[in-house]
């Protein structure tokens, strides 16, 4: 309520009149001597207050009140009908759904709300649905998509007087936190949380993360996080199973408190590359004591790149290192290594005295007519494991189209003078722009001793090459650094003790390009050096642009392969893991990504297919065919659209949320060079595990939600008081009522009463 003055222009005259009347009253009672002083003071005060009331009435005071017009403002009430409402954690073994149904059946608070607002009823789980009545609710929804439901309500009534939203839920939403709600234009959101009323015993798989590593014995690591509630002292058993139910591994833990999070790690090796699915299950000795078993199992997808990977090996001369490296690669079906090995350096070009314009030896005049004449100023190469007779026929690639077809390049004992400056720049771009990997092995013609200091290739390497080589010792020990021990692709044993024991049994190193030191951004994975001398980098790696580089100053790893079969097997394994590291995250012509759509219900997935051209820039003119396999095994085609925000990217949406394994396959064709690429990935849908992941309310997220929207968290058992307070809150549409004070009997009675009191007091005391 506010008070306004409709005749405020009379303020000064009114004040003058009031001052004159006040003075007259004071003089009048001062001259009266027939009564005590207190009587005269009280009587004068009453008359002055009466005149003050009359002066105020002359200024036209009016009361202005704003109140809601019944039925004008809208108010949405949405009830949670997800499956988590079936949990029995209420008084008397009632379910959360039973308590909600009781709150909505013949509810006085709801009738009071309907008297003030036009109430709009909805139910929600994975989707928002209008509800004419709240009778006979069924609680079987797969998700509690609270954020999506609020966005839909706000969008449905955008531009209309929506005064607020009341959510009746157990508070365990599957799509919170949702930062996009801050910009959704929500009205005040009030959430009445039907929290548990008794203690629960439960196991819940909180998270499962899979990692594909370069560790050959266990290339897949599955980390499972189990949240326990009320299970202190009980044995928790967690298993990793294949899709057909075969147990891969099993571990047990015993929680020491009522609320504890347990971590389990499993390592496994899938039988086939590509996408594999595993199931994680957890249980107590007595499953009947748990609140629900829906959150005790989940399916997870492991996406391993299938190759084939193409590696280019360029050697300055035939050597043992290439022999053992090739044998190691031959044991990995996903890696194909083409080799270009120089078997004779080019000879000096002599100026033969022959006929004018003749460039060949005159001794060969008359031979080889119609063919290539013998030359003495070109190197002689041998090509091994090439794709066809044309690959590497002209030597080291000179164009991006030829070089970018490989994912990694290995340079072994090859001097810098072998390359032209354009080829060096091309190899630098191969790493920085194309995202490939460059590995340089040690030898007398490698690194600094090969003249790479100050060259484009030298710039990409993780070592400085301008330090003079050290001399004196002819036997070096090989050992992993702390960074090396932390990398699975550098280790060959299961633990640090066994790894150090293996390293101690290795024969010493005799060939080491020691004139090197690591750059600031490089990581030294292994070092070597003479006994009692300084440690020198033996294996160093770094990121360079979009790719990565490695320098291996050692030039005689091959000696390990000549000792025992065990050492030879370790050598092969280390080479394969090293190449796997070099090939990890190298961009391909086509890649596919799956990500959730935060703005859509039912866990809709966004599929992104990135297509690159032969220069590995975005392919502007590519054809993309996309199909998806649902959990029942059926394939269906998907419509793709070019992504306006990212060149060379095509997107599609998959709205299915059926539980189980999903696969997506993309077939891309670059219309420029006709290259076709097929890529596949997958994911697992676990609506039950997601819905029951948390059995307690997400109070911090809900508090942030109501704070952002200026809402509240009312007590479900005190909704009548909340409705009464709601009427005093700001509303979109209100009515304004204006009433003059002198039209109100109470204020008029006060003014008359003041004068009547003064008159009565004078008569009582005998004043004139």
Short characterization:
With 768 residues, the chain is an alpha+beta fold. The protein is built from 16 helices and 34 strands.
Structural notes for this entry:
With 768 residues, the chain is α+β, with helices and mostly antiparallel strands. Helices cover 24% and strands 30% of the residues. The chain contains 16 helices and 34 strands. The strands form 8 sheets. A 9-stranded mixed beta sheet has the order 17-16-15-18-19-25-24-23-21, with helices on both faces. Strand 32 (660-670) and strand 33 (676-685) form a beta hairpin. Helix 2 (37-58) runs antiparallel to helix 16 (745-765) and helix 4 packs parallel to helix 15 (719-726). It is elongated and about 145 Å long. Residues 369-374 have low confidence and may be disordered.
Write the layout of secondary structure elements.
Blueprint: E1 2-5, H1 11-31, H2 37-58, E2 61-67, E3 74-80, H3 96-104, H4 108-116, E4 118-124, E5 128-130, H5 146-156, E6 162-169, E7 189-193, E8 202-212, E9 220-229, E10 236-242, E11 247-253, E12 259-268, E13 274-283, E14 297-304, E15 309-315, H6 320-330, E16 335-344, E17 380-384, H7 400-403, E18 408-412, H8 421-432, E19 437-441, H9 456-460, E20 463-464, E21 477-480, H10 482-485, H11 496-504, E22 517-518, E23 523-529, E24 536-544, E25 547-552, H12 565-583, E26 590-596, E27 605-611, E28 622-629, E29 635-638, E30 641-642, E31 649-654, E32 660-670, E33 676-685, H13 687-691, H14 699-709, H15 719-726, E34 735-740, H16 745-765
Parallel strand pairs: 3-4, 3-6, 6-7, 15-16, 15-18, 18-19, 19-25
Antiparallel strand pairs: 1-2, 2-34, 4-5, 8-9, 9-12, 10-11, 10-13, 13-14, 16-17, 20-22, 21-23, 23-24, 24-25, 26-27, 27-31, 28-29, 28-32, 30-31, 32-33
Helix pairs in contact: 1-2, 2-16, 4-15, 6-12
